[in-house]
Amino acid sequence: MRQTPARLGRRRIGPREFDFDRQVAVMAIVNRTPDSFYDQGATDALDLAVAAARRAIDEGADWVDVGGAKFAPGPPIPVEEEAERVVPVVEALADAGVVISVDTFQPEVARAALAAGAHVINDTTGLQDAAMADVVAEAGAAIVVTHSLAKPRTPYPSPRYDDVVAEVCAFLRERVALAEARGIAPDRIIVDPGHDLNKHTLDSLELTRRLSEVVALGRPTLVALSNKDFVGESLGRRDRRDRVEGSIAAAVYAVLQGARIVRVHNVRETVDAMRMIEAIEGWREPVFLEHNR
User: Fold this and answer.
1) How many CB atoms lie within 10 A of CB 241?
2) pLDDT tens digits for 162-201?
3) Number of domains comprising the chain
4) Which residues are catalytic?
5) What average pLDDT score do residues 52-62 get?
6) pLDDT confidence band for 73 (50 / 70 / 90)
7) Fewer CB near the terminus (10 Å): N or C of the chain?
8) Is residue 181 part of a domain?
């Protein structure tokens, strides 16, 4: 069912101002990891990562999210190594005119990235380490608080929820309160329900269907749906590169429920979908008017 989200108004994030009552921000994913979920290390090299980020910006991305360590289970990555992966990308994009976030759960990586010019920290552990909130508050930066259950880089087999949406909302409400108590300004907090993070496909579908309950927390809601397994399983064992249409459908549904930031791999296609929603809603004018004029 279509929902009317609470008004969020204008928010300045880094060099961009967004009117989240009338605008959807597209966040491009750029990973410097040899084992990344989607591209399997295709942008691990610094020059390839920077080129991918600039290509995404040319395709209309408002935001670039740089990662140096994926959430999924694996051996620990030293702080110094993760920082060496992400900081040069942040520095290279400092003049790009877009929001730059860094996907990390390590407070010292966050500190280095913010010093290099990042505007947002995207913490997929939902401030499991409260020191992360201190780092973000000290920098006057923004934070994405994401729902997940596992400790960083560790497995969490067969997660079970009595009511996944209610439990996700309770978690996010608690962690947002922690962020504010540690000094992060309320207008600098974004929430993400964490599709597929320690969740089964039915959980992720339920979160999408009832996303308006997450939006009702009153924070800009980010959805990271792009090419995830719940999309592939819903459509029939689709390979990660064959999930674009399903991912866009899920993103459109989420936006109609009130999501205002979408984190994606396929930038051009998603930008077109989001701008079309904006045009249909009357939030933006068509680029030009010629048909039957």
Assistant:
1) 11
2) 999 999 999 999 999 999 999 999 999 999 999 999 999 9
3) 1
4) 228, 263
5) 97
6) confident
7) C
8) yes
Residue 287 lies in a domain: no
User: Looking at residue 6, what is its pLDDT?
Assistant: 64
Provide the whole-model pTM: 0.94
The number of residues making up the chain comes to: 293
CA dihedral 40, 44, 49, 52 (to 10 degrees): -20
Q: Which residue has the tokens 């408002």?
A: 62
Place of tokens 């989607």: 38
Measured CA to CA, the distance from residue 155 to residue 98 in angstroms comes to: 34
CATH value at residue 191? 3.20.20.20
Domain extent at residue 40: 10-281
Residue 213 belongs to a domain = yes
